[in-house]
Amino acid sequence: MQPLVSTAWLADRLGTLGLIVLDATFVPVQPDPPRDEAAEFRDGHIPGARFLDLRALSTGQATSLPAADRLAERLGAIGIGDDAQIVLYDNSPHHSAARAWWLLRRFARGLPVAILDGGLAKWRAEGRAIEAGDGFSAPTRFGADPDLAPVRTKAMVLAGLDSDLQQLVDARSPARFDGSEADPRGLPSGHIPGSINLHYARFFRDDGTWRSPQKLAALFTGAGIDLDRPITATCGSGITAAIPAFALHLLGRDAALYDGSWTEWAADPQTPKVTA
């Protein structure tokens, strides 16, 4: 299974033994009125899909990584075994399936995991089947297999600020990055010194599908990022940072991710911050 699959590919394989579709919709910065991702899932989802519930898979501080046993408990509760193949989709402006991919890569590295190109919006636009309800799955036991080597902490990022071994890619909007727009969580504005802004929306076509590998590579190199040197992705709270990380995965590169991101960095009065 390729890491990025089409709606046609999935439609042809729905119901295949061992293939599990997970709805990874998450809206970290809520609009007014707020969205209820679980209720939206019940109202309509890809047939046979199960609800991952990314909102619950948080420590409560921004959206930092959950404990391995917490994720394993959730995967077991929705019937995912160690021999599953996972296809992730979302219906979020933040393309949160990439965050789910990152979590599964960290805690379920033995599972084949793919993202549905274009997500639920493309599936609906093509007139494909939708079903309502909670989705049924018999609980099972899932054994987590953590690989946290690519996870960066605040201390690690601080230590690398003056090093050529660290390239920081910030996936937030240009206005959030340069401080001209207020932080939605009421934190100081700006960015980590030395980081390069590459807005997550630029990785997608107008229909929400991922750009070609050639276009993705050009986005990185055009921003001055050396694809042959280590790259750490960051954003506001660790959600959209997974988008450049997945893009690099499509290019055959591995990326690290600063999970605390700007939420943790800005909350610390001792960390250096840059505007403009």
Describe the structure.
Keywords: Pyruvate, Repeat, Transferase. Pfam families: Rhodanese (PF00581). It comes from Sphingomonas hengshuiensis. With about 280 residues, this protein is α/β, with parallel strands linked by helices. It folds into two domains: about 5-125, Rhodanese-like domain (Oxidized Rhodanese, domain 1); about 150-265, Rhodanese-like domain (Oxidized Rhodanese, domain 1, 3-Layer(aba) Sandwich), CATH 3.40.250.10. It has ten helices and ten strands. It has helices at about 5-15, 35-45, 70-75, 95-105, 120-125, 155-160, 175-180, 215-220, 240-250, 260-265, and strands spanning about 5, 20-25, 50, 85-90, 115, 150, 165-170, 195, 230-235, 255-260. Helix 4 (about 95-105) packs across helix 9.
Give the helices and strands, then pairings.
Blueprint: E1 4-5, H1 7-13, E2 19-23, H2 37-43, E3 50-51, H3 68-77, E4 85-89, H4 97-107, E5 113-116, H5 119-125, E6 151-152, H6 154-159, E7 167-170, H7 174-178, E8 196-197, H8 213-222, E9 231-234, H9 242-250, E10 256-258, H10 261-267
Parallel strand pairs: 1-5, 2-3, 2-4, 4-5, 6-10, 7-8, 7-9, 9-10
Helix pairs in contact: 4-9
